[in-house]
Amino acid sequence: MKMLEKYHDEMLSCTGCAFCKKSYAAYEFPEKESDYPKGKIMLAYGLYTKELEENMEMVRALQKCTLCKRCEVDCPSLIKITDIIKAARFELSTLLPEHEILVDNFRRTNNILGEENFERDGSRIAFIMGCMVKKEMKDAVISLFDKLGVDVTIVGGCCGHPIEKIGRKVETDIGKKLREKNIEKVVLSCPNGMLALREFNPMHITQFVLSLNPEMKREEKRYIYHDSSFLGRYLGIYDEPRELIGRVANLVEFDERRERAKQCGGEIEFRRAFPQEAEELAMHLIKEAREKNATIVTASPHCYGHLKEYGEVVDIVHLLERSII
Amino acid sequence: MEQKIVDEIRKIVDESRVLTDKPDLYAYGFDASIHHAMPDVVVRVKNAEEVEKIVGIANQYLIPVVARGAGTGLSGQAVPIEGGILLDMTSMNRIKEIHIEDLYCVVEPGVIYAKLNEALAEYGFFFPPSPGSGDVCTIGGMIAANASGMRAIKYGATRDYILGMEVVFPHGRVRLGSRTLKNSAGYQIERLMVGSEGTLGIITEATLRISPLPEKRGVALASFDDVVKAGEGVAAIIGSGLIPSALEIMDHVCIQAVNNAMDIGLPDVEAILLIEVDGKEGEVRENIKKVAEILKGRVKNIEFTYDDEEMANLWKGRKGVLPSLSRYGEDRVSVSLADDMCVPISKIPYAIKEFQEIAKKYNIIIGTYGHAGDGNLHTKVLINPKEEDEWKRAEKAVAEIYKAVERLGGIASGEHGIGISKAPWINGDVETMEMIKKAIDPNNIMNPGKMTQWKGSIISHLRYR
Ligand SMILES: Cc1cc2nc3c(=O)[nH]c(=O)nc-3n(C[C@H](O)[C@H](O)[C@H](O)COP(=O)(O)OP(=O)(O)OC[C@H]3O[C@@H](n4cnc5c(N)ncnc54)[C@H](O)[C@@H]3O)c2cc1C
Ligand code: SF4
């Protein structure tokens, strides 16, 4: 129990107040106690104290969480809820079958979707194509960099972060490639990759585009920005996407946004294992966007790939690509 | 529990809502108290018929039945210490009727307090008891614990809003009370359910009186360099005839904990009072001025606000005291012990002083805060739960605290209830309570082992390993 040992005091500090249930009030899917953050902390504690033995029920309960950190905003004791859940996942010897497939894909192809990666040599500015970006928006990325006049190096492959979130350590070769290519600036559109490649001080695509300040054309459309949990609550990037959307169109906001933004269910490892819950999370956002007569803009390929299944959505990469003159 | 009983339950409630897997039983075994115990089966009931049939089975096979709302109880009330059937009431969460012109609403017990008030706010009304846990706790849990909160000083507790109820007793399902605002027709058994902690029956519906929302609120934040002066301030405000809609006190330990855990920036002083007044706009401003005048000479500093956001922020700090205390540091976490005594208002400063002396004597940290306006204090004991010795010292300190409370003319619980953690100090006539319990629940299946029935040390069924 090495991983959970680190969080022993943290688990004891949880008062059991259940304030972390608050953000779930909007949803139908929390069905039972272990669906809530408090319940998961208690399961982690039971695992740690050996009062509980691992079984499939426990694996499902501990994996049924996007690690979005929304509940932490409501925890008055500042408990590191997601860190505890993640540590507990590292203690589990079994994976869900849906997760086995992702890990297997990664090991075979260096891509959790099991797809071929895309790479290209260029300057010392690198864009990490990753697995989700390649699937969802490869051509738009290439065209965007062309329009920006940047001869970008493209590094492919999965950063491994979705695998780490389910409690398995995998080696990615992206860091090695970046060093070999003497890359000076690393740009991503996937917040998972930004978290995995923190040591390279990566920039999000919105930060990169803003720093170049390109000329852009406006369209008279209403766009509503969906804060990705990982870009927002984990990386603190809230303003840059909004600034860019505001330059090219009319920005509308969700009632709950920035630190309090709702999770869309799009993280690939979550929606593969819990499609029904992921759909319910998505539909809350889709419904609000429709009520506000606005098209959703995402800034993460995980959110985009998921939300587009249910309504009108563009990723900020698409929006920028068509707005830059 | 025998498999055939679980099979019988599965005939009543569909498979997916009957949980027997150990992780589920384990997770449901906690509330917000220091206790933990596992039920044999959890049933996520959806309607009164299901409850009635399950209670029937329990009564037939003599199995304990424990109702559970959100599990925010602080004294172990919903912890099934004798195992048995745990009824998760949270799926019974419909607001069934709202009758503004008749001043009542009808709800299922799993409705979350804040959700009900969201719905009532659309009509300019509210259900006033306002417990600090109101964003998550359920109406059923509130009734069973007679919950209240900072507005009780003006608006009263849950019991003051109970008009009627549907309850499943071991002998069957009954309707109690009425839909009328007044009722002198016999025993008020619906009121007996208030504070019964699930030991008599399961509430499956409640008819609640509602109140119009005040037009305006204002809050004064008064800081003191001495907790006794703050206590005197409380008595002076109440003595003046002014009834604030909230009057809360926080001592230095609590202020420090909130400032460590939350970005609210409370003044770093010995004690603060938060005084809220509500009513018509002019009246609110006048009363806030009156408060400032009353406190002149006692107070170090006083500020006020009528801004909704600023007021919400101050209340967020107050509501966050209890959980924030677990971030006090020094390896200590906050445990729910001696958390809820009530003393005559004028005795508050003496109570706080005594608690501080007791804390010093036993080398533990005790934070005191609470609803000073109605004499309801909350203390929080901070200990290292891994040290057995600290539990022993805490238990002795708790016993002394309650002795002091009794000496000051107070009682063990103002709003959180008795459960296990306060059982040795339950007030009132225990013999009559036990007679009522026996008459209604002769087989002792309803939440057994709690309140008058708990005889052991309170440091039992600990959730900390
Ligand atoms: C941070 C925090 C702050 C709090 N602040 C306050 C406060 O300001 N004021 C206050 O009064 N309390 C407060 N509490 C205590 C607690 O929230 C209240 O007692 C609340 O009413 C419990 O509701 P619940 O739904 O969580 O009930 P639970 O904890 O699930 O159950 C409490 C009791 O009610 C019984 N019960 C639940 N549903 C039913 C039913 N349908 N029929 C019969 N019995 C039932 C249970 O058996 C149990 O005995 C606080 C708790 C926390 C953690
Ligand atoms: S994680 Fe935080 S909010 Fe949730 S029960 Fe524990 S202390 Fe309360």
Question: N- to C-terminal separation of chain A?
Answer: 55 Å
Global geometry of chain B: globular
* Unreliable stretches of chain B: none
First-residue to last-residue Cα separation of chain B: 25 Å
Structure commentary:
- The complex is a heterodimer of chains A (325) and B (465).
- Helix content of chain A is 48%, strand content 8%.
- Chain A is an alpha/beta fold.
- Chain A folds into three domains: 2-94, no CATH class; 125-210, Rossmann fold (3-Layer(aba) Sandwich), CATH 3.40.50; 216-323, 3-Layer(aba) Sandwich (Rossmann fold), CATH 3.40.50.
- In chain A, helix 8 (131-148) crosses helix 17 (301-307), helix 8 packs parallel to helix 18 (316-323) and helix 14 packs parallel to helix 18.
- The longest helix of chain A has 18 residues, at 131-148.
- The mean pLDDT of chain A is 95.
- The model of chain B has no long low-confidence stretch (mean pLDDT 94).
- The chains are: A alpha/beta (325), B alpha+beta (465).
- At the A-B interface, helix 2, helix 3 and helix 4 of A face helix 2 and helix 12 of B.
- Bound molecules: flavin-adenine dinucleotide and iron/sulfur cluster (SF4).
- Iron/sulfur cluster is lined by residues 14-20, 37-38, 41, 75, 77, 79, 81 of chain A.
- The site of flavin-adenine dinucleotide has 38 residues of chain B, from strand 3, helix 5, strand 10 and helix 12.
